[in-house]
Amino acid sequence: MSISNALANALTGLNAVSRAADVVSSNVANAMTEGYGRRDIELTSQQLGRTGSGVSVVGTTRYYDPVTTGERRDADAGVALENTRADFYDTYASAMGQADEASSIAGQITGLETALIEAASRPDSDARLSSVLTSAQNLSERINSASDKISDTRMAADAEIATTVDYLNKSLQQVVDLNVAIQAQVTQGYDANALKDQRQVLVDNIAKLVPINEVPQKNGMISLYTSGGVFLVDSKAATLEFNRTPTITPDMTVESGALSGLSINGHPVTTDAERGQIAGGELAGLFEVRDELAPQAQVELDALARDLIERFQTTDADPTLPAGAAGLFADGGAAFDPANEASLAGRISVNTLVDPSQGGDLWKLRDGLGATVEGDQGDATILNSLTEALQATRVAASGGMTSVERSALGFASEVYSLAQTSQLNAEANLSYVSAQQETLVGIEQAHGVDTDYEMQQLLIIEQSYAANAKVIQTIQTLMDQLMGI
C-alpha cells in the first residue's frame, strides 16, 4: 500500500468516526424525545480499481418496527375508547348518586317515604306536611338535575367531536406536507429522519382518535387508512366533515336529521364504536356517548320519572283526584301523557296545588289534591295511601326494565345499579387495554435508545478515532524523514 493510499484510508476513517459520533450524540440527546427513532450509521468499504480505498458513509438508518408500533397504536385507540366510556358512566353514576347517599335519587325517595310516614303520624302538623312538600321537591329537582347532566354530557360530546374533526383535518394535511418534504429530502440524498420523527408523532396522535393502518410508499412516504378501510392520507389528505349542534334535546337523532353524522370526502361513514368505519378510537367513543350511551341513560331516567308520576296519578293513591288530573308529581305542571315520555325526567315537578309559594295549599297533601275545602286535620288516610303508593311493587311501563315488579326505591336502585355495573365493566376493559398498551410501549422502548449501549459505542468510536489519527501521525513522521534525506 502506498503512503498516499494509507493517508486517504485514514482520512475516510476519521470522517466515518466523526459521523458516527454525531449519530451517537443525537441518540443520547433524544433518548426521551417522543417519536424519536434510534439512528445507526451505515458504512461500506470504498473500492478504487482493484485496491481498497477506505470507508464510505452510505447514510444514517432510522430504526422503526412497524408491527410493534402498529399494535401499540391500536392499543392507544382502545385506551382512548374505553376511557371515553368510563368517563361517561362515571358522570351518569354521579348524576344518579350512590344509592346509600341521602342526596341521591334513591336517598331522596327514602326521604320522601320517611316524611310521609311522619306526616301520617301527625296529620295536623303543618311542619310535617311542609317536610313532605320539601322532600318531594328535592326528589323532583334531583331527577331534573340528573337529566340536565345527561343532556350537558351529550352536548359536550358533540362539541368535542367538532374539535376532534378539526384537529384531524389539520393533522392529516400536516402528514401530507411532511410526506412531500421527506420525499424531497430522500431524492436529493439528504437525511430525512428528523422529518420522519415529526411525522410519527403526528400519526401516533391521529391513531388515538381513529385507529389507522400505515402503509409505506416509495421515497419514505406513507399512506394512512382506517381499520375500516377508509383512506385518510394517500396522494392527498382526506377531508372529514361534521356540523356541531349547539343545543341538543333528547328526541334529536342522526336518523331524524337533527344531528350531524360524519362524512369523509363527502361520503357518510358509520360511527359504530365496535364495527364502524372509524371503530375503536376516541372519535367513535364520542359518537357512542352522543348517540347511544347518553340517550339510553335518558330513557332510563325518563322511565324512573314516569314510574314515580304514575304511582300517585291514580285514585288508589288519592281518591279525590278528578279523571285525567295530575297527582303529587306532574309533567311540567300537567298530567302525564304516555305518548310524551321523552325528556320527562327534565320536566317532572311537584303539583302546584300543594305548594303555598305557587298558590297551593299544604293541607291538600292530607285531604287530597281534588279537595275543595280543608277536612278533618286528624285524618291520615290519604297520607297513608301516598306512602303505600310509593312502597308498592309494580312493573315499570318503559325503560327496558318491564319484567320485574319494583317499589319506587327499588326502581331507582336498579337504575343506579345498571349505571354502576356499566362503569365497572368499562373500567375493567380500560385496565385490560391499558396493560396491553404498557406492554407494547415497553417493547417499543426496548428497541429505542439505550444510553448504556450508546456509551459503549462512543468508546469504540474514540478508539477508532485514535487509531486513524495514529496512522496519520505515523505517515507525517515518515514524510518528515523522507523530506530530511
Strand content: 5-15%
Mean pLDDT: 88
Q: Into which percent range does the helicity of residues fall?
A: 55-70%
Number of helices: 11
- What count of domains describes the coordinates? 2
Secondary-structure element string: HEEHHHHEEEEEEHEHEHHEEHH
* Low-confidence blocks of residues: none
Largest sheet properties? 3 strands, antiparallel
Through-space gap between termini: 22 Å
Structural class: mainly alpha
Rg (CA only):
36 Å
- How are strands sequenced across the largest beta sheet? 3-4-5
C-alpha geometry: elongated
- Number of strand elements: 12
Pfam family, one: FlgK_D1
Main location: other
Keywords: Bacterial flagellum, Cell projection, Cilium, Flagellum, Secreted
Protein name: Flagellar hook-associated protein 1
